[in-house]
Amino acid sequence: MATSALQPPGLARFSWARLLTLAPGAVVLAVSLIELLLADRKFGLFTGGFGMSRAVDTPAERAIFLAGYASAQALLGLAGWALALRLTRGRPGWAPVFVFALVNGALFLGVLAAQYQLASYFSDAMSFALLKQLGGGSLLDAILFGMSELGVALLAVVGLAVAAAIGWRILVRVLPRDLPRPPAPGWRAWLAVGGAFLLLAFAIPRTGSDAAYGLNRTLAWDALSRTLDLATDFDRDGYGLFGVQHDSAPFDAARHPLALDIPGNGIDEDGYGGDLKLVPLATPLGPQVFTGKRPNVVVVVFESTRGDVLGQRINGKPVAPNLEALAAAGSAVRPAYSHVGFTTESLKSLFSGQLAPRDGDPSLLRDLKASGYRIGIFSGQPEDFGGISRTVGERETADVYVDAETLRDKRAFDFAAQGSLLVDESHLLAAFDRTLGMEDWRTRPHFAYFNFQSAHFPYDHPGVAHRVTNHPLPRGEIDAANAAQVRETYWNAVANADHWLGELVARLKAKGVWDDTILIVSGDHGEELFEGGFLGHGHVINPQQFETLLVASRPGMLPAGPIGLSDYRAILEAAIRGQAPPKIMVPPFMHIGALDTPTAIGLAGAGGALTSLRLDTGEACFLDLHRCAPYGSLGGADKARADAVVARWGSERWRDRQRAR
Predict the structure, then answer these.
(1) Are 361 and 344 members of one domain?
(2) Phi and psi angles of residue 619, each rounded to the nearest 5 degrees, phi first
(3) Tens-place pLDDT, residues 218-262
(4) Do 90 and 223 belong to one domain?
(5) Model's pTM, two decimal places?
(6) Range of the domain at 515
């Protein structure tokens, strides 16, 4: 039935033709809205959230983003329309629209769904791989899980093919066969849309705007700009003209973003700080052995605990009374900086005394084992995660080893993406009581390491008592709109860890070994709580995310700050020998990402000075002065501070590269 009985044939034909003309634009608009809604839900693209430091959240950023996004979607639409016309030569006039709806509509959404499912899948797959590695699950379970995900994808493809075939048959019967064929895009359309995209793809990454990073979260922009960047990588050094980190020397393979700066050759390979002049670095300790009377040693790490925990009050209640008492009777140093802002590398630095240790390097644990200590590990996380145990020798040295693997039935949550690899401190103390806590610490020196995980996102789990708030937020309500309650929930989690620190101190005192024990407490890194619109750690170099503190049970044991986690081993080993604390000769260095390819680097200084440099955008920030500026515009003292960060990074990197040879 080609026309309706209630409608003149000419009008019906006109309506179908008009509809077919509008349909491609409607398809592009629909999939664009769906993508943007998903991107905001998954990544907090426009609203921010945990782990999202570059939300597109200002009018200027959104205008830039929408211009770039529209140009990419329009170019993809033109390409899809040209393909649909080519594939449907000799077919009815409505056929190109049908094919376009399949390719730029259903297929686009399918790839989009796969992208988001892939993120979830890899998170879950890592969960299963980790479970297998730790012995908490089976390889068969992981394989079956992967097969089920693959099966769902294959069923979706088959379903789409069947739906397309059925849809084609229906349209053949319903639509007129003599509808006019829609026009092909002319050269003017290609020139306008293609030229706009080329201009924006070249210009937007150079603005330093968060819009550039937001656009890289979208399918069309990311695929097209990557293609252009690859095509313009003339010297094949991995950088072209269209990336956020673009090549300013496109025909010189030795000069590009993050190139290794060779000292003394007169060339500035990475574009920062001129030719590298090496600066003094800390000399890593070799293997150590302690003899004579050796104190017991206890190390407690509070997950994600900020340096401002001391003196923190929530609803009039102290967050960490036990930590404050320990600091008052002993010593404390703040700031103490994480070098990377994440747990795995932080713990490696803490125990090895190095910025970037390798597996088998000397470590505190290996030193204590060689010195006759009995060693116990009690961790609320899996210590094999990220190679912590392997690098610093936890499993190889431990006489008692308890972590989220051995206490897998005590985990707080079911899935890794929701923090399932987290065990409450009460279970760690119980494990201590039935193992190392029952032993005689007077006849042989003991070492115990505790990792308290309460303050890990989402900051509340079964077992966390309401110590400073009666209304901790559930995970689903953690967002910027509830920032005040998020902070209360976080500090309540820290208070839970502090409570169990008090229980541990009470046990050591009850055993009569407190006076013969050195106890230190530190965070592994900090946590930003929406102060700058961000929630999380390790993404922005600032005091909230990178700063923690070190507290020791003995007075006079700690040097003046600032210090880094890599200084802890030397501090502890001096205390074990009864020596004065070592003088910290090198200020703490920070980096986001791998040491060789970071996105940002930073350096702490005296008096709270903290300088950072984003190597992707060239923005230098002086956190203590609350201002930022492009690196190229700096002069005087500001440039000297930024260049000191670059020189330290280049020196650390050069030593690491030489060591690898």
Answers:
(1) yes
(2) -90, 125
(3) 999 999 999 999 999 999 999 999 988 889 899 999 999 999 999
(4) yes
(5) 0.79
(6) 296-584
